[in-house]
Amino acid sequence: MKKIKKEEPLDKTPKYTVKEVAKIMSVSAHTVRYYDNEGLIPFVTRTQSNIRMFSDYDLSWFKTVHCLRATDLSISDIKTYINLCLKGNKTIPQRAKIIFNQEKKLQEHLKELQKQMEILQKKKKYYKNLLKNKTNDIWNPYK
Amino acid sequence: MKKIKKEEPLDKTPKYTVKEVAKIMSVSAHTVRYYDNEGLIPFVTRTQSNIRMFSDYDLSWFKTVHCLRATDLSISDIKTYINLCLKGNKTIPQRAKIIFNQEKKLQEHLKELQKQMEILQKKKKYYKNLLKNKTNDIWNPYK
DNA sequence: AATTTGACTTATAGTAACTCTAATGTAGTA
DNA sequence: TACTACATTAGAGTTACTATAAGTCAAATT
């Protein structure tokens, strides 16, 4: 029989400032505000003096946004995804499609980058040799 | 004793139109013209009616540019690199530095993307389960 | 108490690298 | 000769930041 691990819901107490979130997520404070202004992090609260405070729950939304952005989904497509999330269970098939597609795209991107890595490493090797044998005659100036 | 393979110099006969280069390199024709206008492909010739024609030699420059761009070097930094190439052997140490640095940056980028891939695959699994057990109670709408 | 510091706010301008549109030119085919 | 299918340039538009300006507010210093 399969054991189901019940996860704890995330803490919704406001804890982190824009700057702290920026640091945790390795992005600029500008970007944090930008994402919030674009409505990508739905429930961020403010202090009585209008300052954004993020909870762990808000952070988890941010992590989702960051993951999708880091894998090159557009802001507007991320917004679509977030809005689907907010509409509840009936949007699961649509959300699943977005995630499956994104995984596929990333797969291809990784493959392409690995191809470029091979080219770069060939160039690296070429230059390493050149730096050793300084007298070498070079006819491919573009390498 | 190490055998040194003497490479053949590349053909400089004009052969490919913008569109053909675009297809070969999997970029848009716009991008091909843009790179040329920016001076990233130094020796592209034109027909008497002013139409760009690329040789295999030009293509090899393009491939270098494409590799650097695909690994996120800025256009202006690529221009710097190309100009160093054109200045001949005395710029080898500077060029080597650019390439070594680029390889390192790509290494890090690949690592980051692999991290994001793990997150995406967790989400994928999550949605696959949801699609199977349609009655599942979901409390993390952001997943 | 007044001032300064510093982190926050919004609004807006600037940037990089395309990406697209418009206006125009040319070469080959019907 | 007109049509089609491309090519050209110049310039506007787009995305996702990124930076700047001008201002608010609260805590710390004088």
Task: Explain what the structure shows.
2 copies of one chain form a homodimer. By secondary structure, the first copy, chain A, is mainly α. Chain A is 59% helix and 3% strand. In chain A, strand 1 (45-46) and strand 2 (52-53) form a beta hairpin. In chain A, helix 1 (18-25) packs across helix 2 (29-37). Chain A is elongated and about 65 Å long. The interface between A and B is large, with 47 and 47 residues. The first copy, chain A, binds a DNA duplex (30 and 30 nucleotides) through helix 2.
Please provide a brief summary of the model:
Chain A has 143 residues and is an all-alpha fold. In chain A, 59% of the residues lie in helices and 3% in strands. Chain A folds into two domains: 1-93, Multidrug-efflux Transporter Regulator, Chain: A, Domain 2 (Orthogonal Bundle); 101-143, no CATH class.
Break the fold down into its secondary structure elements and pairings:
The structure is a homodimer of 143-residue chains.
Chain A: H1 18-25, H2 29-37, E1 45-46, E2 52-53, H3 56-70, H4 75-86, H5 92-132
Helix pairs in contact in A: 1-2
The first copy, chain A, binds a DNA duplex (30 and 30 nucleotides) through α2.
What oligomeric state best describes the polypeptide chains here?
homodimer
Instruction: Report the average pLDDT across residues of chain A.
Output: 89
Q: Which architecture name of the largest domain in chain A does CATH use?
A: Orthogonal Bundle
Order of helices and strands of chain A: HHEEHHH
Residue share in β-strands of chain A: under 5%
Question: How many domains make up the coordinates of chain A?
Answer: 2
Largest interface: A-B, 47 and 47 residues
CATH topology of the largest domain in chain A: Multidrug-efflux Transporter Regulator, Chain: A, Domain 2
Strand arrangement within the widest β-sheet of chain A reads: 1-2
Estimated helix fraction of chain A: 55-70%
Estimated structural class of chain A: mainly alpha
Report how far apart the termini of chain A are. Answer: 60 Å
In the CATH scheme, the class of the largest domain in chain A would be Mainly Alpha
Number of helices of chain A: 5
Shape of chain A: elongated
Q: Tell me about the largest β-sheet of chain A.
A: 2 strands, antiparallel
Based on CA atoms alone, the radius of gyration of chain A comes out at 23 Å
Count of β-strands of chain A: 2
The low-confidence parts of chain A are: none
